Amino acid sequence: MSGPGNARVVAAARALVGCRFRLHGRDGVHGVDCVGLAVLALRAGGFRGAVPSGYAMRRGDAGRVCADVDAAGLMRVAANMPGAPGDLLLLRIHAGQVHFAIATGDGMIHADAMARRVVERPGAGRWPIVARWRLCDGPFTPD
């Protein structure tokens, strides 16, 4: 179940739509990449965990990315549970590349390197979801 922090995540991600894409970018003025978008949106929702650096989303190891996000303190959503607006999505772009996006409830927001900006896309998206996390608004018991 999502909480008020998740609504703030979506609002912050939407505020970045149109922002230019910049590899390793971390602010809306100079640009963001998918990690920068995720960090700014999650911080707006109250997340204060560690942020990765020195990453390579190409040639990225999805297992390692998942372990890093788990360790940062977000709650992993089980594959059989429904998604919610504000969820952080890890997508498989192709065999050697993963990508972060923010779920909106009827689509996703992501830093699109091809469009050279942050975009909001309707629908389920064309990439498979590897994992999903959300802010933890209170105590939870992992599976």
Written description of the protein model:
With 143 residues, the chain is an alpha+beta fold. The chain is built from 3 helices and 8 strands; from the N terminus they run H-E-E-H-H-E-E-E-E-E-E. It has helices spanning 4-15, 34-44, 62-72; strands at 26-27, 31-32, 75-76, 88-94, 97-103, 107-112, 117-122, 129-134. The strands form 2 sheets. Strands 3-8-4-5-6-7 form a 6-stranded antiparallel sheet. Strand 4 (88-94) and strand 5 (97-103) form a beta hairpin. Helix 1 crosses helix 2. The chain is globular and about 35 Å long. Mean pLDDT is 87; it is low at 138-143.
Q: What coarse outline follows from CA principal-axis ratios?
A: globular
Amount of helix: 10-25%
What pattern of helices and strands is seen along the backbone?
A: HEEHHEEEEEE
Assembly form of the protein: single chain
- In total, the number of strands is 8
The helix tally amounts to: 3
Low-confidence stretches: 138-143
How far do the termini sit from each other?
Answer: 15 Å
Helix-strand category: alpha+beta
Strand order, sheet with most strands: 3-8-4-5-6-7
Beta percentage is 25-35%
Overall pLDDT level: 87
Radius of gyration: 14 Å
Largest sheet: 6 strands, antiparallel
